[in-house]
Amino acid sequence: MYVGTLLISKGFNSYLFYYQPSQVGVVLSSIAFNTIVNGVSIAPVASNGVASLLPVSTSSLSLVGRLVPQDSQQGLDTVSAIFNNFIHGKDSEVMVQGAGAGPGDVSGPFFFLCTLWLIYCGALL
Amino acid sequence: MTWLNEGIQALQIATVLPNLGPQGLIQSVSLNELTLMFSKNHAYDPTSSSKSTDAAFQLPFAFPVDIKALEQTIIVGWQGQDIAKLVIPKGPSSTDVGARIIHLTFSDVPFAVYGDKHGQFNDFVAATTVGSTQTLSLNGNAKADASTAVGLLSLSDIAFSVDSNIAGLQGLNVKPVTVGNLDVAHGYRDYLLIKVDGTLNDPR
After folding, report:
1. ipTM tops the 0.85 cut
2. Percent of chain A with pLDDT strictly greater than 90
3. What average pLDDT does this structure show over B174-198?
4. What percent of chain B clears pLDDT 90, i.e. is strictly above it?
5. In sequence order, what are the beta bridge partners of B6?
6. If you ran DSSP here, which 8-state letter would residue B24 be given?
7. Do B154 and A67 lie within an 8 Å CB cutoff?
8. Residues from chain B contacting residue A96 (CB–CB below 8 Å)
9. Residue closest to B93 by CA, chosen among B57, B55, B60
């Protein structure tokens, strides 16, 4: 899957638009990412509720997160550069790295079977 | 579901944080107090100081931003022409975080009039001395140290273009000049030495 654009509105709510080319869909109770620029992790984000990665379609994924405090000068320079780009009407390149999926405490056959069933239905359609 | 977690952690997607066009940050600048110290050698670059200047700003982020230090280069214009340049070095500022107003002061900054604009500067000083309110245009750019929850960020090249009003002296005629304590102190062969107290009222 590849990503179109990561949008920022007020604060740090964002939407990930992605195209899912596979014929297998996945529904996750949650999915989390880390936003990394120049090797500095600036913002962990997670999906706002259930994440549906539907097959062969473009979906939007609502993400909520925060900008983390930076201790190093490199971290502060990186976040400053992003703010300066934004203020001057320029785009910033970021890298979104997967951090985890599903609720932290869920494991086991029930959730797994529900997900498999949904995928099976998705594949049939 | 360890296998799913590990699979997700292998995802690395390069993407873009899109912009929303250039953001005009500084909305107004109020020169609440301005002192110009003229001297014979510095007639066209008097030393300027301000005990109170406010700059109102807006940011497209909802979180609080405290501007701790500000450095600016301002080109002062009057009646449609740029007449002088003010280079204010980096100095501490205090910010009303809720209202988003920066309070700053500066001292001993040369109000450097352009070589070919001496005539206009003369007119400006005359207009400010006898008139009531003069409008100056202030264009330039600024650099700010912004304290946020992330840490101290450095914002640079913040362009601004605003108008600012300054109150004139109105010829010091708002209240009549008072003269008192007339004392004919001493008589000389050619003249009399007279001492007198005069009060001139600044309308502000």
Report:
1. no
2. 25
3. 86
4. 47
5. none
6. -
7. no
8. 11-15
9. B55
Contacts of B116 (CB under 8 A, 6+ apart): none
| pLDDT of res. B49 | 92
pLDDT at position B153, please? 93
Tokens describing residue A68: 């983390």
Predicted confidence (pLDDT) per residue in B58-95, tens digit: 888 788 899 999 999 999 999 999 999 999 999 999 99
**Alpha helices, DSSP H, located in B42-147:** 118-130
Closest by CA to A81, choosing from B172, B164, B150, B25, is B150
Q: Does A104 touch chain B (CB under 8 A)?
A: no
β-sheet with B12-17: strand ranges across: A2-8, A13-20, A57-65, A40-47, A31-37, A92-101, B12-17
- Which positions in chain A touch B17 (Cβ < 8 Å)? 6, 8, 82, 85-86, 91-94
Inter-chain touch B1–A101, beta carbons under 8 Å: yes
For strands B26-37 and B47-57, give the pairing: antiparallel
What tokens were used for B7? 């699979």
Whole-angstrom Cα distance, residue A56 to residue A25?
8
Give the chain A residue nearest B23 (alpha carbons): A87
For B120: left if phi > 0, alpha if psi spans -120 to 50, otherwise beta; the answer is: alpha
Distance, in Å, from the CA atom of B14 to the CA atom of A4, rounded to the nearest integer, reads: 9
B21-41 pLDDT tens trace: 888 888 998 888 888 899 888
CA distance A47 to A39: 22
User: Which residues of chain A does B158 touch, with a Cβ-Cβ cutoff of 8 Å?
Assistant: 87
